[in-house]
Specification:
Layout: H1 10-25, H2 30-36, H3 41-48, H4 56-66, H5 71-82, H6 90-98, E1 101-106, H7 117-127, H8 133-145, E2 156-162, H9 163-167, H10 173-188, E3 193-197, E4 210-215, E5 222-227, E6 230-234, H11 237-253, H12 257-273
Parallel strand pairs: 1-2, 2-3
Antiparallel strand pairs: 1-4, 4-5, 5-6
């Protein structure tokens, strides 16, 4: 079945077509070009076929090797502007789609791939208090649609959550009950592995922010750090290695997956039984 047409794909397809045209004009195979810009032939092929988004550094390399005077960097900016995601999240979202392993730590929020519509809506309403429902709903739909990644048999997804994620009543008790029930369902369905760092564990290396580690079949691992209205993708091997060690230390301090599931279900009951706020 053909993929439905997505208007946001047009700049990406144009980038791929231009890459193929200029590569062939230079007399280079995908493999030969890949060696010159430090990637595999398969990666070049995926960009030409518009399967993968181009990256900023890759565009700079291509302009240098193919002597295109900033041509690919300009098209890259078109691709970014056409994306449905926030500018700082564009590259991270694309990498998550092709990752073999995603390992996330979140100190305050349920990670986006596991959010329910009600939870996501409550977050967007809190973040954008002046936006109308008609503006919020497309944002909710886009975020929830990304959960399809968890259905990929080739993806291993592991999340470590601080206990604060379970306790803060985002959207109220009913929304939290639904969200935590969803987490429990994902665990029982063997679609994800979740561990919780309990309050009594004390301090740990990732208390000051979220972290997403991504590993790939044919590329080096990457780390993504995110804060309010900003994000940073890092592929420096030394920093990724330090981030991986921090993640491992936090995971070691967390409850076992079985005990974490019990805590998630207990927290859901606490939200269900909590007294409702009086207006």
């Amino acid at each position: 079945m053909a993929k439905a047409l997505d208007p946001t794909d047009a700049p990406r397809r144009f980038y791929g077509e231009e890459l193929k045209r200029l590569r062939e004009a230079a007399g280079l195979t995908q493999e030969a070009l890949g060696k010159l810009v430090f990637c595999s032939a398969g990666y070049i092929g995926q960009i030409e076929a518009a399967i993968r988004n181009p990256q900023k550094d890759m565009s700079e390399y291509l302009d240098t090797v193919l002597k295109t005077d900033g041509h690919f960097q300009r098209i890259y900016e078109m691709v970014r502007k056409a994306s449905r995601y926030e500018d700082y999240f564009v590259d991270a979202a694309e990498l998550q789609e092709i990752a073999a392993t995603i390992s996330e730590f979140s100190p305050l929020l349920v990670p986006g791939l596991m959010q329910t519509p009600g939870y996501a809506r409550a977050l967007f309403e809190a973040t954008h208090p002046l936006r109308k429902p008609a503006e919020i709903e497309p944002m909710v739909a886009l975020r929830v649609s990304r959960s399809e990644l968890l259905d990929k048999s080739t993806l291993q997804y592991w999340a470590v959550l601080d206990e604060a994620v379970l306790r803060r009543p985002v959207g109220g008790g009913s929304v939290m009950c639904g969200q935590l029930a969803h987490l429990a369902e994902l665990i029982r369905g063997r679609r994800v592995i979740i561990q919780v760092v309990p309050f009594f564990a004390g301090g740990h290396p990732l208390m000051n922010g979220s972290l997403c580690l991504m590993a790939f079949e044919d590329a080096p691992p990457t780390a993504y750090f995110e804060g309010p209205n900003t994000g940073r993708l890092v592929d420096d091997p030394a920093l990724v290695a330090r981030s991986s060690l921090s993640y491992d230390l936090v995971r070691a301090a967390a409850l076992s997956p079985e005990a974490s599931l019990a805590l998630i279900e207990s927290a859901a009951e606490d939200h269900a039984n909590a007294p409702r706020a009086v207006a």
